[in-house]
Amino acid sequence: MRRWRRFTPAQRIGRALTYVLAAVAVVWSLRTIEVIPEFLYDAPEQTADLFRRMWPIDWSFWGEMVAEALVETFHTATLGTIIALALSVPVALLAARNITPSATLNLVAKFILVSSRSVNSLIWALLFVAIFGPGALAGTLAIAFRSIGFVGKLLAEALEEMPRGPLEALAAAGAPRGAILLKGYWPQVEPSFWSVALFRWDINIRESAVLGLVGAGGIGVALDTALNNLYWDQVGLCLLVIFAVVVATEVATSAIRSRII
Amino acid sequence: MSAALAIRNLRKEYRAGVPVLRDVSLEVGGTGMTAIIGPSGTGKSTLIRCINRLVDPTAGEILFGGQDLARLKGRALREARRRIGMVFQEYNLVERLSVIENLLCGRLGYVPVWRAWLRRFPPHDVARAFELLDAVGLGDFATRRADALSGGQRQRVGIARAIMQDPELVLADEPTSSLDPKTSVEIMELLARLARERGIPVVVNIHNVELAKRFAERIVGMSQGAIVFDGAPSELRESDLLAIYGGEGWIDS
After folding, report:
1. How many domains is chain B partitioned into structurally?
2. Which ipTM was obtained for this model?
3. To probe the interface with A, which of B45, B51, B86, B94 has the most A CB atoms within 10 Å?
């Protein structure tokens, strides 16, 4: 009788070894994070206690600090996104191999995009707070510099995936490069551009809400103040407002996106 | 009849030592339609794309308007290209632009970039675009987006765009291959009529022998990168078709 097995003996040994290694890794990492049993046991109790302290929410904190900080967060995210869009377009044009046929320039552009993305917004914010002092300016630039890589990379990819035909037709009509960019590339890449811009704006609203933790303005500052003062009812208000804003932008961006595409 | 275009010993190798075009020489007169027929992969498309340098030839001359197109670069090449209109198999319209703007794209070689950017095309260009749109039977479609049109309508826009250039020569690369038989005839009629009215010579790649015989004044048959037949449609015999396409089962006598 012919038998069938899914794996060869070598594969079976390999798989068994993988399981053993995974188990070892889990045990090892549990030992390194040093769980303190006392804290673990009363975690549910502490959680419940935290929520009890947050309730009722301190609405007076709204007028005192949160409202203004919320507007600042909104401005930080929006202005940061606009700056990022303006700066990422030239970089994306340099990074797209079909537009810039120089491997060196492509590499330089890719380097800019990667360095922008590899640094977290909070780290960018720390840098800019050190340079410009605390406040929304540092936050805005942090958002902008973090977003260049994201927007630029996606835009460059969209440009590289463009159908060649229309571009060829414009070249055959004797159109100069600038005209081909404007009338060939731009109309075709426009939906991706706006969709990336909206997506990044959505992300930036969420990111700029925490930038205040390192002093870069916005609602994070209010949250940080409340946390430091141990005013949990104010912390509750901040968290609630951030949650509401995130939901609202999500709804807004998906509504706009469905209209432009 | 003076030659509008003279191709001398044109050679193209995509890979060194494997020529797709083997020293092709061809003269095209100042008027009329020349159809290039031949099996797929025989270099028809490469030949036509060498003329306006969408493909760079390996060797040979392409004489057009007193210049050798094969040697042009940069600005000189762009200026030569705008005098040659091109119609594509896949229409190659800018899908998200309106029909009228696709026509105006035919003027991009003449219009300064800032005008194109602000959509401030010269009024006489716009007026001509509307006229041409009427001439191709799409007068009511000016503000429709190109991606809302059918294949036949798109190809009409493609032809109108080529004519917008005010060309001295029109190249058409398999303009009917994506269309149904009836629309194919209509498109060929339109191309032949516009070219005749304006006295523009047309070089068309086409694999449909019947359409070629019906609309062209001259048939050029290619096989394996070389011209094996050149004459009037009435001179095209079965033996010539055999030489062009090989085999014989497909010819019904």
Report:
1. 1
2. 0.90
3. B94
